[in-house]
Amino acid sequence: MLKAQHLVRQYGSVTAVNNVSFEIDQQQIVGLLGHNGAGKTTIMKMMTGFLEPGSGSISIDGVDVNQYTAATQARVGYLPENCPLYLDMTVIDFLLYVTQLRHMPYRSARRAVQQTLVRTDIGSKACQKIQTLSRGYRQRVGVAQAILSEPSILILDEPTNGLDPSQVENMRSLIKQLAQTTTVIISTHVLQEVSAVCDRVLILKQGELALDSTLENLQQGDQLLITVDRPPEQLIAQLQDHVVVQTIEYLGQDQTGYSYRLSPAGSNTLVSIVPEITRTLVQCGYNVTRITPERRDLESIFREINLPSHVALQ
Questions:
Q1: The whole model's pTM is what?
Q2: Are 17 and 207 in contact (CB under 8 A)?
Q3: Residues 202 and 237 reside in one and the same domain
Q4: Is 290 a domain residue?
């Protein structure tokens, strides 16, 4: 488990990270999302032990990163946005060189390289010089060097940056495969990448944690969508004074009927109002063709969070 508590980091008078806390369990894929300058890179550097927080702490499996930097770094694999590769080396020589930097015993190193070539599907390129590889394969080499030591936490900074659509799909598949045994943290500003592979998202805004939620809960809205066979003047008159309904918005008409968006009143939840609304509509003779919670996409949520008036959510 990775645990961050009340992280603060300043660069002179600029506060890059302000009182950020979160916990990440094993075998999760977590997206670290935010605009440029939101604090993503600073948090990643603190997670890897490259940068000390001004205050607060980060621990990995209960071990403090700042007090035991070498020990915790051995549990972390890291792919920078622009991974430094030695282009004149072959893939296998480069990976063996990385095992030397990590002080891995010779036999363990050879075995780790062989396994990693298979896991990242670059065995066919093992004897090629890195400079001859496509952008997609170079990214795979970058992932390979990050997982050589079988880290418990893998941090990927913009892993699909510059890849073509086919290479993006391959990278997504690789990330999902790696997450079967490793906690994966992806830092990105590409919303589609988070939606495609992540279980959970941390959204940063101006150095603060604006939202921490699973994708499933995040996309589940707090409003109800219904479709019936009556025009708005009838339904609104019927429900506008209902005690469980705060607002009713008419969305339009199609072949399935007239559609509306309802917001619960007061402390009522969607789960609690659905039976009451359904009962009322049926008793009044409405033909109900749809009644379902509204689902939101990550793009609209991210846009809402970055409005000037938005306040932090937990």
A1: 0.78
A2: yes
A3: no
A4: yes
